[in-house]
Input
Amino acid sequence: MTDSPIPLLPRAFYDRSSVEVARDLLGKTLWRRTEAGLTAGIIVETEAYDGANDPASHAWRGQTQRNAVMFGPPGYAYVYFTYGMHYCLNAVTGPVGQASAVLLRAIQPSVGLDIMRERRGATIPDRDLARGPGRLCQALGITTTDNGADLAGDALWISETADAPDLIIVATPRIGITRAAERPWRFAVCDSRYISGRPVRSRDVQSTTP
Output
């Protein structure tokens, strides 16, 4: 368990539906500790995946060696490699055997930006350091060696955010997938410059989730 003075998210936080967890993760802080130092950022974009009930989920066709972590207890990291070049970080949710998860799509960097820039490139602007799931993992130094990591551990954890502002949250269809893309299970912080794609303006949102 990390010695962070900021309260970690309890296991019960993750033991709910992926849609609930995906929404509630916005505004929380994702932390990463490596030999290079400490990095962190506020979560501003997520997507929910609902196991066997979701054709877009890696668990839709059942358990495999690759997705086995999804079938375990909630509150652990499911990390996979995609397109031969990107790692993606998910938080396992729901009860054992359900295999639901939340993809962490983007963070607003808050700690260790110099370390992130060493990994991503010296001229990368703050906005692009961790905007998108592949960039997020590269900026934080997350790979499949972190698959199965406890999200309340010493190397990778999610906490409350000190002095967290009030957020306007919008639900949209998921992006970057071909199956069940119409489900409104992508959640983003309105007016954030750090989400993937174009920012969602609060003035354009008629129905929001506080």
